[in-house]
Specification:
about 75% helix, 4 helices, mainly alpha
């Protein structure tokens, strides 16, 4: 689940970067990489980013309110909260 969270986080950041570039500079990074706005690769990238965003919404619900990114201090923090 940690790997899925990292992949989803990176894909969502790429999507946010793309929309920021579209909004500020009218430059679509996905279109530039794929060569066209509506081809199979561009659609696949957009769908992957959508699924990543949905996963980041659902993942904290599954893991009881926390997005698990494998924090090495998580156990120490949980033990500290119990005291």
């Amino acid at each position: 689940m940690i790997i899925a969270n990292y992949i989803a986080y990176v894909l969502t950041l790429i999507g946010a970067l793309n929309w920021g570039l579209v909004g500020i500079f009218n430059f679509n990074l996905v279109t530039w990489i794929c060569g066209a706005y509506r081809n199979g690769w561009a659609i696949a990238i957009y769908v992957l980013i959508l699924l990543a965003a949905i996963w980041l919404i659902i993942s904290p619900i599954i893991s009881r309110g926390m997005l698990d990114l494998g924090c090495p201090y998580k156990k120490e923090m949980q033990d500290k909260d119990k005291k």
